[in-house]
Amino acid sequence: MLLPLLAMAACLAPVAQRPPQQRQEPQVDLVAEGHLIIAAAPAKDKNLWGYQVALLAMKQGRYSEARELWDRHLPPAGALLKGGASAQRARSLFQPEEAKIFFGEPHERTLAWFYRGVLHWMDGEPDNARACFRTAQLLDQSDESARQGDWVLLDYLDGFLTARQGGDGSDKLRRARAHAPGGASPTLPDYDTSANVMVVLQLGFGPLKRAEGRQGETLKWSGGHSTAKAALVRSGRQTVRAPALDDVSFQAATRGARRMDALLAQKANVKQATDTVGDLGLVPGLILAQSEGTRAAGQGLLVAAVAGKSVGGSVQPRADTRTWNNLPQHLAFAALRLPPGRHRLSVDFLDGEGNALPARWRELEVDVKPRGDTVLFVADP
């Protein structure tokens, strides 16, 4: 994963401070390292690495690389909804769920399409961006959940782009406000169709998967974290507050049961039963096999016990815990009006009490286009 690469770089760095005149060693290019990892990864894991490296490239402003990675590793929506042949194979008793090609859980699929939509918007393709946001909302579903299609920012941006093109985005605005934190309208302002600078923000660190249960058959989530709960975006006399909207950990935890969960539970039961048969038959079989009068019965028990242990050892009930590990905890958005030309834009990240987090302050130089939208992507550092 990318984090071990960072840790390795930190461990190899000397502790003593170098003299000012000594040339500094170049920093590790994690995006370039990511490309190497993708090339070496097995086919089933390439999408996972592609997602992670594409988002890392976006954070570094390397948008052309991010586009190429999304286009190569983002499966079509139809494939994501169906799961593909590898998902069918993973339902076998003797195949681990991790054997399937990584498409991600619903929130991971949703965010992959969201980020691709942001890049389309940057490229002056608002129609394609809106189509991606709608697809992302469609992918926010599982086999059993009452909370589907409830991402706030996806509805808000869908309606915003509709309104910008002269359509009626009011229904999407109502949906977004209904799902916004607290359900209060002031959280999301009316659409400013004259705005021309769009700032998409992400805050904190998202959730990670873990396996629980006797056989590791239950998929659970370790909650993400974000000290930052909002951002203030400033340019000149304009200041726009961008509150945290979507909670990625909440989205991960409220998707309901997966079809695979029931299959993994069945696998765990089979493994437990066959292991028990093996344990119960092994010792009595050995004892009975020692006496000539009970040898046949003992041998029969031993055969059943060995078969049970063999089947139990081959059953693979463990849940797939591969995780897109550099997702954020929150998404946010701000829209400004700026004349064409070069501008300086600053971003203050705020904690839950509204206090600025000075170490996370960002300043950007922005070239505002004479026509169309100027779209910025800013990650909480």
3D architecture notes:
By secondary structure, the protein is α+β, with helices and mostly antiparallel strands. Helices cover 44% and strands 15% of the residues. It is built from 13 helices and 9 strands. The protein has helices at 2-12, 30-40, 46-59, 63-73, 77-82, 85-90, 106-122, 126-139, 152-164, 170-179, 248-253, 259-288, 295-314, and strands at residues 197-203, 208-212, 218-222, 230-235, 238-243, 330-336, 341-350, 362-368, 374-379. It has a 4-stranded antiparallel beta sheet with strand order 5-4-7-8, with no helix packed on it. The longest helix is centred in the last third of the chain and has 30 residues, at 259-288. The two termini are 19 Å apart. The model is unreliable at 1-23, 85-94, 256-260 and 308-315 (pLDDT under 50).
List the helices and strands and how they pair.
Layout: H1 2-12, H2 30-40, H3 46-59, H4 63-73, H5 77-82, H6 85-90, H7 106-122, H8 126-139, H9 152-164, H10 170-179, E1 197-203, E2 208-212, E3 218-222, E4 230-235, E5 238-243, H11 248-253, H12 259-288, H13 295-314, E6 330-336, E7 341-350, E8 362-368, E9 374-379
Parallel strand pairs: 1-9
Antiparallel strand pairs: 1-6, 2-3, 4-5, 4-7, 7-8
Helix pairs in contact: 2-3, 3-4, 7-8, 8-9, 9-10, 12-13
